[in-house]
Amino acid sequence: MPLDPHVKRWLDEVYGGPFTPMHEMTIDQARRQMQAASDLLGPGEEVASVENIAADGPHGSIPVRIYRPRSQHDRLPLLVYFHGGGWVLGSIATHDAYCRALANASGWAVASVDYRLAPEHPFPA
Questions:
Q1: What is the mean pLDDT of the chain?
Q2: Which residues of the chain have a pLDDT value below 50?
Q3: Domain spans of the chain?
Q4: pLDDT for 101
């Protein structure tokens, strides 16, 4: 189904050129588009703290970013967040603003996992 012409025109303006549907892009193009969309959101909300750690995995370390909400207490529940992107797109960086908002809105700590992406890292990665 084609995009509504008004939506297409808006997307062309937002992305600085003709908008290509994601299913017609290469993986690199789709990754760049996801990063560009994330950049439009800006830096995200202030949180009490952000800590980058590494979790040990069977094939090496896996980056994890811990967000603590502004309403921080000594002990917090933890939400483990795996970003969207069909196991091919996205990263800690593309979902940073969302995780900040999620931590503040929920009052929970959020652990965002930067899992390895396909096709560079086939299952199980």
A1: 90
A2: none
A3: 5-40, 49-113
A4: 97
